[in-house]
Design a protein that fits this description.
Length: about 260
């Protein structure tokens, strides 16, 4: 049955079947299977890929799903990502699948306070493998979970994950200073190069705000003058389709840190 559904879903013409499947997902066999078959790498990868496909649509799951897809579910995924010895190429494949699963799962949460992914991350002292992979994906501008051609496109899962991590001061500490500086370099480049009509600019500004608010960035002030110049230019840019949103984010930054205007 699982293979049949997977085949139908993968033929892009039948995405509607996936949406119906998500809306009527009553049985928790996949989630329980992932927890009960820890030593079966092949089965773990298949289940992770299928769950990623379901969650990548961004449709809200039935509340009953979260009985199993809870903080323990997240900590188990994080353990597979971070505590794996990578003894073989199949272990690497599993890590990749688990990162994708976490990215797609995180699309379920629009509020930081109720984000189960962040609650799981907050329990860890480090998440080096995850954050390194997120940085690589961001710089490559690649979203590994967006494989379906949907009319209503979900948020970029990589940008959302980084924004969510940085929006919480506890989880923001999982990123090293070097990570933050690389992010700032990337944000500056994107703000300079992304066309003003692109919705992505708002996401980069959110990243900028969260870095300034929740990391030690202002102690380092890496390329702050360049970043400040980008923000000032956006304020006077009237061609953006996200002008109001962008201005609100920038004004929020300057309101909390007026010294940046000096």
């Amino acid at each position: 049955y699982l293979c049949i559904v997977y085949f139908i879903v993968c033929s892009y013409k039948y995405i509607v079947y996936l949406l119906i499947y998500v809306k009527n997902l009553k049985q928790m066999f996949m989630f329980r299977d992932m927890q009960n078959n820890k030593d079966d790498l092949s089965k773990q990868v298949i289940l992770a890929e299928f769950l990623t496909l379901i969650l990548s649509v961004g449709e809200t799951l039935p509340i009953s799903c979260f009985e199993f897809m809870n903080v323990d579910f997240v900590t188990k995924i994080l353990s597979d990502i971070e505590d794996n010895q990578q003894k073989s190429s199949y272990d690497e494949k599993k890590i990749e699948c688990m990162i994708n699963l976490l990215l797609s799962y995180n699309l379920q949460f629009s509020e930081i306070e109720s984000n189960i992914t962040l609650k799981g991350l907050a329990l860890r002292k480090n998440a080096k493998v995850l954050t390194e992979n997120l940085m690589i994906l961001l710089i490559l501008e690649k979203d590994p979970v967006q494989v379906l051609k949907l009319k209503k496109k979900p948020k970029n899962s990589v940008e959302k994950m980084l924004n969510d991590i940085l929006a919480d001061s506890k989880t923001a500490k999982l990123l090293y200073i070097n990570d933050v500086e690389v992010l700032v370099d990337f944000i500056i480049r994107q703000l300079l190069n992304v066309p003003s009509e692109e919705m992505a600019r708002t996401s980069y500004l959110e990243l900028c705000k969260n870095i300034i608010f929740n990391t030690e960035y202002l102690n380092q002030r890496h390329k702050l003058s360049y970043l400040n110049k980008c923000l000032q230019e956006i304020l006077v840019d009237d061609s953006s389709c996200t002008k109001n949103q962008d201005v609100c984010i920038i004004e929020e930054i300057y309101s909390k840190h007026p010294e940046l205007l000096e």
